[in-house]
């Protein structure tokens, strides 16, 4: 019996030693790869100091109206995400894609991700980068809240809004139960390089992009940028804080609700993949979203998922330009 226990202890010690070596090797692999990715991950647009941190904005196009894009929760690189729309919009309007802190090429921040702080940062980066109203905001998913709050705080600067499967404040306040973002296991898998190793498999990459139509309308070089961004932004306190405060932020927007005088177009996917709601619940709130404007309409976009602009960039661009030309 004593010999067996001694042998068992020895096996446990060896197993623990092997695990520690593997974890250490994985952590070293992650750190080396991280530094390499950061060197190659150069901003597509320009960085501006907002509250002492670098905030990124990518701009282009021409015209009197500036289309401002607000990305959804967890969209690692907004520049890549909205890129199928640029060529379609550039001859007619200016456009500006900002990265909230924790996204794209922007820094992370220690400031709480409450809706007024986020909105003030957006306003400041637009000013610093030389953008001029009128703005036509395009909000995807959770980006709807900052879009509406911006219009509430700066109504004279907004010409209209297009929601791309954007959630209504009523939905985020009444019917959203998101799981915790991240956690110890996720952090361990990231910091020991497990997630990074998984992304060497094409099947894993394709699975991660399935809700975005496998980035069908995105050039290969931008897909590489998207992959780097995904790996660099996996563990992100700012994204986690946005999720944690989503209900509180929705309440702030709801408390200031008055129907806007400018146009609002609500584009709704006919298939849900990442909204945390059933189709019936989501569709109910999407139909009622039109109550936010005196000039509102809803368009249900067939055969699309949550990232409608990755499935039907032509239709999304047309709806944006329809408001821009008014």
Describe this structure in words.
This is Alpha/beta hydrolase. One of its GO terms (molecular function) is hydrolase activity. InterPro entries: AB_hydrolase_1 (IPR000073), AB_hydrolase_fold (IPR029058), AB_hydrolase_sf (IPR050266). It comes from Paenibacillus pectinilyticus. Helices cover 48% and strands 17% of the residues. The longest helix is centred in the first third of the chain and has 39 residues, at 2-40. Strands 1-2-4-3-5-6-7-8 form an 8-stranded mixed sheet, sandwiched between helices. It is an alpha/beta fold. The radius of gyration is 22 Å and the shape is globular. It has helices at 2-40, 78-81, 86-89, 115-128, 143-153, 169-174, 184-191, 194-198, 202-209, 220-232, 237-244, 246-255, 279-288, 308-311, 313-324, and strands spanning 46-50, 53-61, 66-70, 94-98, 135-140, 158-164, 260-269, 293-301. Helix 5 (143-153) runs parallel beside helix 12 (246-255). The chain has a single domain, classed as Rossmann fold.
Which structural class is indicated by helix and strand composition? alpha/beta
Cα-based radius of gyration, to the nearest Å: 22 Å
Largest sheet: 8 strands, mixed
Number of E strands: 8
Give the overall shape. globular
Protein name: Alpha/beta hydrolase
GO molecular function, one term: hydrolase activity
Pfam family, one: Abhydrolase_1
InterPro entries: AB_hydrolase_1, AB_hydrolase_fold, AB_hydrolase_sf
């Amino acid at each position: 019996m004593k010999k067996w226990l001694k042998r068992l202890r020895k096996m446990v010690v060896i197993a623990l030693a092997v695990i520690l070596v593997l974890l250490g090797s994985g952590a070293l692999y992650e750190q080396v790869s991280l530094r390499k990715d950061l060197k190659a991950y150069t901003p597509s647009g320009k960085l501006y100091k907002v509250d002492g941190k670098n905030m990124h904005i990518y701009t282009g196009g021409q015209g009197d109206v500036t289309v401002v894009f607000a990305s959804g929760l967890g969209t690692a690189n907004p520049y890549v995400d909205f890129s199928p729309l640029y060529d379609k919009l550039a001859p007619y309007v200016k456009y500006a894609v900002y990265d909230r802190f924790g996204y794209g090429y922007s820094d992370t921040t220690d400031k709480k991700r409450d809706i007024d702080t986020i909105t003030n940062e957006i306003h400041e980066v637009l000013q610093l980068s030389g953008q001029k109203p009128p703005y036509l905001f395009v909000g995807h998913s959770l980006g709807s809240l900052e879009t509406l709050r911006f219009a509430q705080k700066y109504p004279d600067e907004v010409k209209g809004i297009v929601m791309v499967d954007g959630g209504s404040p009523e939905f985020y306040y009444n019917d959203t139960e998101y799981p915790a973002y991240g956690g110890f296991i996720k952090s361990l898998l990231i910091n020991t390089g497990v997630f990074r190793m998984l992304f060497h498999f094409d099947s894993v990459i394709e699975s991660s992009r399935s809700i975005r139509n496998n980035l069908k309308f995105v050039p290969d070089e931008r897909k590489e940028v998207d992959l780097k961004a995904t790996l660099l932004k996996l563990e992100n306190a700012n994204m986690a804080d946005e999720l944690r405060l989503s209900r509180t932020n929705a309440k702030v927007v709801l408390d200031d609700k008055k129907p806007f005088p400018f146009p609002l177009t609500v584009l709704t996917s006919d298939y849900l993949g990442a909204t945390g709601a059933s189709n019936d619940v989501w569709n109910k709130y999407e139909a009622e979203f039109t109550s936010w404007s005196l000039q509102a309409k809803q368009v249900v976009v067939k055969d699309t998922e949550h990232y409608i602009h990755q499935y039907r960039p032509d239709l999304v661009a047309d709806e944006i330009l329809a408001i821009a030309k008014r």
